[in-house]
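Query structure, 250 tokens:
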């Protein structure tokens, strides 16, 4: 279960690239959290609407830096912890398939039935270290989908592959996403991750109010973001690749 997967990593001194993939990735995720994670809001005398987040990372194993918490600042601290572990710790490989399958097994037991579930997974490399689902994205996806079907609440999983064709296996990611019921997005570099997450966050957390102003010989259309005041809370999981390649420049 997620709460039992808390772990620590050996830490050693290292030179930290200013524009490393992990720094860019965690920064993009922090901006995403700022968009979607609302402070507790009381709706018309009802109970507070409380969003909760999990931060997890994977190299050749899965580790949870922060179990479900309603506190945005704790999510931010966990993202910083993941960044530090990657930059200061040893370089390891990628076990995406096993990690996503484990998340799929755990989420239905920890997510709330009255909350919308959201899982965002980011990877920058090919999976060469999964053991249960070694070289088998189809089986991993099917296991993920089967377990997530136990969740009584609606949910969305977004899988983001970052890198060139030489760095990521786009066909394998497509198989994983197709069989896992996930939405797949691929981008060439980590610098574009922020754009993807910003767009996703906008769709989740805001609408757009369009106002048209007309006059003699002109027309102006003004688009204004409007806050989403839905009383439906979110349970979200941020799953970040923490393999050695994330130390590299983004």
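Result returned for the query:
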């Amino acid at each position: 279960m997620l709460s039992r997967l808390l772990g620590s990593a050996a830490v050693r001194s290292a030179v930290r690239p200013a524009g490393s993939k992990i720094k860019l990735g965690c920064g993009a995720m922090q901006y995403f959290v700022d968009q979607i994670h609302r402070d507790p809001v009381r709706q018309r005398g009802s109970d507070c609407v409380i969003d909760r987040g999990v931060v997890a990372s994977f190299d050749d194993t899965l580790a949870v830096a922060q179990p479900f918490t309603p506190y945005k600042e704790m999510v931010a601290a966990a993202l910083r912890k993941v960044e530090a572990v990657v930059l200061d710790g040893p370089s390891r490989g990628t076990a995406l398939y096993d990690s996503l399958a484990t998340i799929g097994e755990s989420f239905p037991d920890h997510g709330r039935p009255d909350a919308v579930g959201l899982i965002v997974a980011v990877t920058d490399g090919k999976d060469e270290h999964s053991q249960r689902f070694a070289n088998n994205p189809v089986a991993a996806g099917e296991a993920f989908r089967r377990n997530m079907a136990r969740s009584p609440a609606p949910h969305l999983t977004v899988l983001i592959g970052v890198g060139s064709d030489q760095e990521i296996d786009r066909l394998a990611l497509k198989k994983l996403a197709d069989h896992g019921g996930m939405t797949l997005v691929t981008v060439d570099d980590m610098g574009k991750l922020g754009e993807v997450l910003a767009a996703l966050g906008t769709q989740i957390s805001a609408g757009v109010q369009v106002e048209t102003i007309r006059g003699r010989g002109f027309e102006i259309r003004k688009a204004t973001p409007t806050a989403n005041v839905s009383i439906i809370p979110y349970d979200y999981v941020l799953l970040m690749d923490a393999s050695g390649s994330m130390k590299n420049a983004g």
